[in-house]
Amino acid sequence: MLLKAFALLPDDLVTELASLGILTSTDLMFSSTPLEIYSRLSSKTISFPEFEACIKVILTKLATSGQEAVELDQPSQSCFKMETLTSLDNYLDGGLPCARVIEISGDNDSGKRILLLNCVLMSLLRNREIEGLWIDTTGDFVVERAVQILEYHQQSLDDMEILLQRLHISIATDMESVQQIIRALDFQLALVRTSSIQMKYIVIDSVTSLFGPYLSAVSSQGHAIMAAFMRYLRDFAKRYSVIILLINNATLMQPRSTARAQTTAEVTNPRSVFASTIRKPALGPSFTFMTDATLWVSLWPAQEEDEEKFTTHVVEVFRSKFSVSKYLVKW
Amino acid sequence: MDAQSQHLFSLPIPPSTLAALTKAGYETLDDLPQSDSANQLIDVLNIPLGASQTLYSSSQRPNSGGPGNLPSTQTAASLIGSISKRKSRRFTTHCPPLDALLDGGLPEGGILELSGPPGSSKERILLNMVRSFVEAGRTVLLVDCQDMCEPCHLDELMTDNSSARRLVSYLKIGSLTELMMFINNLSSCNDSFDLLAISCISYPFQNARLTKSARNYILEKIKQALTKVNISQNVTIVVTSQLVTKLVNIDGTTGNFDSVGAKGVMVPALGHVYLPSAKAFRVLVALNGPTLDTGSFRLLAPLKPGL
């Protein structure tokens, strides 16, 4: 933060520090010891104890406030949960918890989008006071699919229309637009609203096309953009108790290159229970640590004895902060 | 550091501007002075006008209101309503079998890819679409990547329509670089048009030596730009593409010339990566023999009807 933004610092001190090249609070804290900085000041308009007191004030303002452990032990039953599949919900103690950022990754056509759409619509159906935002970044979202799902659940046209009024769909093909939408939503939710309908879901479909173009092997700016945005999403989810669901695509597992490595051999994903999983979530190894859970959806190969036309999908919990990993569900 | 304010490195500003701002100690949008006009940063830090305008437009507070007032957002119910209104207007390709395949013609705001061998009439159908739009009084941007659709051909086709010259804009693309420049500038183009017709989009890729990842990157960029312009400005897109041979083994996996029993299959040259896959109609135009009198159309996508 800029030193001149702190009203508590005297202006001449700020100007003096600026002439020494110290413009931000980070420079003041970490460039050198307070004694060394004070000795470099040309005209001593304040005394050294006063200078130390100023630094202490800045530190207090910037530091994160502490929280007692007893406050952190919130009962999880009172928190809103998103129900997904029965066995997964039984395992997760009711469903996906709110105030979290959850990644759903999988290969193309593995069923991630349809799974999320089903879960969001069912949640909107059961609870008439919540609404959801679906941000489509690839243009692949087909709204008729939502209608088909609601028809399957025997909803009349009027009920369908009322429900679909609570599902907002945005089209944003790049980072800038998504930032604009979410920050605008942030601003609106921050105002005190008397409306009873609460925003509970934000789905970003998909984040791979959003962050992918920025990630490169020669620059870390893309990674910084990704990390900063993920941190903002995490903060947003906590502040408004929203569940943020991110759809991520998959890439092939690369074999570790050694002199004797066979490049044609397929590498299996150690996070998966199945040896047939040869792909991993995209966006690099650090993305999974920027979310609270990573679910992996894959298509189960069709068996010969299946005569009816249906497909089987498998959901695995690769990593989770609120449950044990390496759990799988077949639906 | 406050997680709520937006970092300056995530904004689309030139690297020199970012370096100047970082050196002056500005890290997030909240650090920028709010009440001043853009001139302060220009004079003190030598930031170009365009970059400072980007900075101030990003830091503007949005309007209040419910989620209905978010930028580029509408409810699912109104989206369905607008789609049904759009689908009622269909443009004919002047080719009855293709119109039948498309359920009456290409809907407004739809995307059509025509691929086929040389000699199949895909360019002719493209020009027919241009004619449909001109007859309806809409503007067209015709991009020619292979010198197949000269303006004089277009003139001959539309002799009975005097406004054709005013409604159709023509652009010739010579290389992959020019194609990428066009794609990058597409969304910021000031002139609006209703139909984007690209003749032979696969041709610039033929002679370019690209690694697989570079090619995928370029195709993703094209997809992003086409999606953006299709959705935000409701532009109908018609594209023609050549075919390439793909060798397929008996068990369906990709083969090569040495595989025993491998068959050669003709597929569209660029695959499906560059099109927004859910909405695009992909049609293969094939010829039924050397006489060039009869041919057939095959719909490759979408596979599920009613979309």
TrEMBL record, chain A:
UniProt GO MF annotations: ATP binding; ATP-dependent DNA damage sensor activity; four-way junction DNA binding; hydrolase activity; single-stranded DNA binding
Pfam families: Rad51 (PF08423)
Any one GO CC term of the record: Rad51B-Rad51C-Rad51D-XRCC2 complex
Domain RecA family profile: 71-251
UniProt KW keywords: Hydrolase, Nucleus
Compartments, as annotated in UniProt: Nucleus
PROSITE patterns (UniProt xref): RECA_2
The protein, known as: P-loop containing nucleoside triphosphate hydrolase protein
GO biological process: DNA strand invasion; double-strand break repair via homologous recombination; reciprocal meiotic recombination; telomere maintenance
Gene3D superfamilies linked: P-loop containing nucleotide triphosphate hydrolases
Key word tRNA processing present: no
From TrEMBL, chain B:
Transmembrane segments: none
Keywords attached to this entry: ATP-binding, DNA damage, DNA repair, Hydrolase, Nucleotide-binding, Nucleus
Gene Ontology MF term list: ATP binding; ATP-dependent DNA damage sensor activity; crossover junction DNA endonuclease activity; four-way junction DNA binding
RecA family profile domain boundaries: 87-243
Gene Ontology CC: one annotated term: Rad51B-Rad51C-Rad51D-XRCC2 complex
Subcellular location, record wording: Nucleus
UniProt GO BP: meiotic DNA recombinase assembly; reciprocal meiotic recombination
Protein name according to UniProt: P-loop containing nucleoside triphosphate hydrolase protein
Organism: Lentinula detonsa
Taxonomic classification: Eukaryota, Fungi, Dikarya, Basidiomycota, Agaricomycotina
